[in-house]
Amino acid sequence: MKHASHQTRPSTVFVLLGVLLTTLASHGQDTADMLPEPVSQPDVPQGRIEGPHEFHSKLFPGTERQYWIYVPSQYDPQHPPGLMIVQDGLRKARHWKLPTVLDKLIHAGDIPIQLGIFVTPGIVPAAHKDAQPRFNRSYEYDGMTDLYARFLIEELLPEVGESYKFSDDPNDRCIAGSSSGAICAFTAAWQRPDAFRRVFSSVGTFVGLRGGNEYQTLVRKTEPKPIRIFMQDGKNDLDIYGGSWWYANQAMLSSLQFAGYDVRNEWGDGGHNDRHAAAAMPTALRWLWRDHPSPISNVAGKPRLTDLLITGEHWELVSSGHQLTDGPAVNDIGDVFFTDVPRSRIHRIDPDGVISIFAVDTEAASGLMFGPDGKLYACESRTGHVVRYTPDGSKEGFLTGINGHDIVVLHDGSGYVTEPDMQRVWHFTTDGKTTVVADEIESPSGLITSPDQTELTVVNSRGRFCLSFRIQPDGSLAARQEYGWLHVNDHLSVAAA
């Protein structure tokens, strides 16, 4: 790890912008201002702060950033501790009195031993002394993709791991931030609950800067994830072009409660600053880490049409180590089949959960679907063929000249195939006759019929809508309409229906 040495020199424009943002952030007075602040005590062992260390990201090309490591006095590499990751670096951690709070709470046994990583957002340095740097904070923090979570998981944590041991259990990790750093912390856990499960959000930016306002709906629509959240805000928070922080945080709390998340809030009179968060931090950390090491579990939410799981049941991992899975299909006895596209394999999961390889050398088969003949239909990505597999795994040729992605087979043996590269949908009959029945779809991918097989829905993976068609007696499609509305992420690929 190297010490940072590069200094950037912001232009007058950025200095004025900083003054404006500071003025906005200071608006309002906190009722928590008069609460006692944490102070070091002689009988409490103090951890040490190491850094700054400079980091150059490949996922955010050209950026430089700094990070610091809080090492508790109880650190023992033979017993890897948990993690607390804080956005906006050591400055934010010190505003929250966090090193002192961690010293006290760890010493008291109120929270588990944990390593702190305090990291700043990236900056692309100015080209010369009279030029402006590019500040990456909003792009990295307010974005709605998994990119920042990947930066932590794939780049920063491996570097820290070269010097320090820490737990890889997401139940042992907390991620925290203020303002844009707060929505960043939530997004990292939302996108990757396999890596982060405890979130501290102070004056979170759940407003319309880069789509964060959509969380209020996404949280309600999406099955709850194993995340515990502590939220802090004040009624004098920002109210600007992007929205009202105060009302957005209340709406976010309502959505989290509706969906069944383990969430606690602490509201006050304060503005867009760190005063209330600093006062609340000991309470927040005790609450976030309560009952550790028991795994985080959700609480009772309200019934939703989108609920999938049986009450009291949870998702279970049945298979891992694949490169790109696709095309789940179920036969009439309950066997589940899926593809590993790059490895050209089709796997089978029997009703007892036993995994086996059903077929190899599948020519990168993707979409799968069983037909009424009991055969498994598959779209071969490499050959442009649609083939059929018999129950013993033998392959039969069926259709040619269609570089299909997904397939659906109807009760009479006819069906439909999407062809994204050519922006069209094919209809096929039992005797292998094929006809283009829809075109000029930007990227048709998944498709399915209604239970009565009178309607066909096609997903445009690069758009905001599903397309709905009425299936005609001859297999042609009519009444084309943009029907199902989709949430899309920053890169215009489908995020959630």
Explain the layout of strands and helices:
Blueprint: H1 12-25, E1 48-56, E2 64-71, E3 82-87, H2 89-95, H3 98-108, E4 114-119, E5 123-124, E6 134-135, H4 137-142, H5 147-161, E7 173-178, H6 180-191, E8 198-202, H7 215-221, E9 228-234, E10 239-240, E11 243-244, H8 245-259, E12 262-268, H9 275-288, E13 325-330, E14 336-340, E15 345-349, E16 355-360, E17 365-370, E18 376-380, E19 385-389, E20 395-399, E21 406-409, E22 415-419, E23 424-428, E24 434-439, E25 444-449, E26 455-460, E27 465-471, E28 477-485, E29 487-488, E30 494-496
Parallel strand pairs: 3-4, 3-7, 7-8, 8-9, 9-12
Antiparallel strand pairs: 1-2, 2-4, 5-6, 10-11, 13-14, 14-15, 15-16, 17-18, 18-19, 19-20, 21-22, 22-23, 23-24, 25-26, 26-27, 27-28, 29-30
Helix pairs in contact: 3-9, 7-8
Task: Explain what the structure shows.
This protein has 497 residues and is an alpha+beta fold. Helices cover 20% and strands 32% of the residues. The protein is built from 9 helices and 30 strands. The strands form 8 sheets. The protein has an 8-stranded mixed β-sheet with strand order 1-2-4-3-7-8-9-12, with helices on both faces. The chain has a 4-stranded antiparallel β-sheet with strand order 13-14-15-16, with no helix packed on it. Strands 17-18-19-20 form a 4-stranded antiparallel β-sheet, with no helix packed on it. The longest helix has 15 residues, at 147-161. It is elongated. The model is unreliable at 1-37 (pLDDT under 50).
